[in-house]
Amino acid sequence: MVQNVLCEVNSCTHWAQENKCTAESIFIINHAHQKATESQETDCQTFDKKDAVN
């Protein structure tokens, strides 16, 4: 597990209580292949949608 990585996206399979990320590694890319200057210009490619729980 990646250490000290927090994430608020609770619809991801790697999300755990207290906003902990349980992914073994994190992969983040720039929007439109441009140099990012703010966090909003990046995307987490590690995101994997959690299955809906009925």
UniProtKB/TrEMBL annotation:
Family matches, as InterPro entries: DUF1540
Residue ranges of domain DUF1540 in the record: 5-47
Highest taxon above the source species: Bacteria
Protein name as it appears in the record: DUF1540 domain-containing protein
